[in-house]
Amino acid sequence: MAVYTEVSDDALVRFVAGYDIGTVLSSKGIAEGVENSNYLLHTDRGNYILTLYEKRVDPGDLPFFLGLMEHLASRGITCPLPVKNRAGEALGELAGRPAAIISFLDGMWVRRPTAAHCAEVGEALARFHLAGADFPIRRPNALTLPSWRPLFERSRARADEVAPGLSADILAELDHLEAAWPSDLPAGVIHADLFPDNVFFIGQDLSGLIDFYFACNDFLAFDIATCLNSWCFEPDLAFNITKGRAILSAYERVRPLTDRERTSLPLLCRGSALRFLLTRLYDWLNVPPGALVKPKDPIEYLRKLRFHRTIADASGYGLALDAPPSAGVVPAGAAS
Amino acid sequence: MAVYTEVSDDALVRFVAGYDIGTVLSSKGIAEGVENSNYLLHTDRGNYILTLYEKRVDPGDLPFFLGLMEHLASRGITCPLPVKNRAGEALGELAGRPAAIISFLDGMWVRRPTAAHCAEVGEALARFHLAGADFPIRRPNALTLPSWRPLFERSRARADEVAPGLSADILAELDHLEAAWPSDLPAGVIHADLFPDNVFFIGQDLSGLIDFYFACNDFLAFDIATCLNSWCFEPDLAFNITKGRAILSAYERVRPLTDRERTSLPLLCRGSALRFLLTRLYDWLNVPPGALVKPKDPIEYLRKLRFHRTIADASGYGLALDAPPSAGVVPAGAAS
Fold first, then answer.
1. Which residues form the signal peptide (chains A, B) (predicted)?
2. Which among A94, A104, B226, B282 is placed 20 to 30 Å from A113, CA to CA?
3. Span B45-68, mean pLDDT?
4. Considering CB atoms only, which of A31, A112, A293 is closest to B29?
5. Together in a domain, B81 and B205
């Protein structure tokens, strides 16, 4: 939840005049999204989203994010599309911040996903991975293995305030992951944050993916791990293997996993859980004064991490290990 | 800024099915409004506001608020209009709270009002007062003179933490207002919170009034005092008499003030400033844990109060005291 930047009405009207989207009739700050300020604009042509990029977003990354949305949309992935201004630019400036107007995507995110929703997500993720294969801009993942230890160092001194023994637990996990992390998996553009609040549905049908502001180049299966973490645990943090199977089998119908991806899955799930544990831990310990955002509980991801340590192979997530890969194997185009 | 209540997608779809407003395509929490949770609904028929009434609102007051909106709209005041459900009710229940769907009102609130905006507000306020005259439900003002001392008692012990000497200052003001407060002014339905964020404009034209959740019966001129406080001070808290004159003369073109209202104006302005000082002081000292709302600065209203102490008569606000009331005097219909 966030509206960090107040936009004056006259500045907004001047900004929108640079676009061919009609006259602004109303503008409402949206209480969603943590990284940026978002406004819903109603014009005499329809609804649009105005995004102001706040300081957590590197302006140098914006051509990647905005270009990726255009690239994906042109390949049939339903996602918000940046609207170009009269100068042909997707990126402008408003209230001293980089700003863009994005098409409004209908749909609602599902608070209690079912296995049917998980299957839709698995399929959409695989299609996303295929569609991103020929996207020309590259952006390394700033939140994968090499970043985790330095990130933890910024929370380490106070980690045990959050849970006794947390610091030692994370250090042991870092040792393990640094020793075992794979280096040879199919890679490409990943969403990197495909939580339920970034997937819209209308009724039972997936209507689009949003929030590409963590997207980057990394192992494709790391994205699957993040979906297993964010879609398949019940509120009591029990893993629902039916949902895991739904994601994995729907994904594989579009892009079958390689053997190395299958065997790496428990490790990738541990890494993904640690990544969210670490960022949530840092945010938990560093709530800025006057913050409008309630930090998310890091312990949820500690418990998920501990679950993944008990998983010996990908069958623990519902993957049918003895089924042969389907005949129509689609190679990941951007394997590194 | 507030979304206090999360509404699950399936509960929302069930709730909306009770209304003839089409199918919900999206729902976004709006980062505006302090008292209630507001969602912008986009359906295949258009945009609507869904309001969930939180615990600061007494459910017993909702027929007054919703009925007032209907009453005003039927008399030509542009304001949001409650949508009745298929059972003919404006009020339902969602996520355990009283809830209503309200028509979406286009327009934006003006961050830096000009004298022209102030004139529009003065005229709209007078029309509001006339339109409310025959509204049959009554609701006493819970935030006028008798409530102020008990309200202050809840902050008194810690008031000097906010500003040295604040407690003594407020106590002296309470003594003065309790001795001098008028009892015989024209009364009726007042908005009671007509700050700039509750008045929408499209371009230079006022497009409607919103947020009737403080509306009540009280002196009509107390509403004018609140507008002078909230529209006519510059960011450095200097009073802009041009803006004051704009509000007052536009108001008087619709409803001329009585002599007693004119002479009472400085006192009413002090009372209105104290009312907002006291509620802001209480909120400042009582930010709930995990609050999403940043409390507003009480000291702004202390400085406004001190300004009003220097005003000898209503000419200090720009009122033309020697001009005779215009010929077409419209009596305040609901004078108590």
1. none
2. A104
3. 92
4. A31
5. no
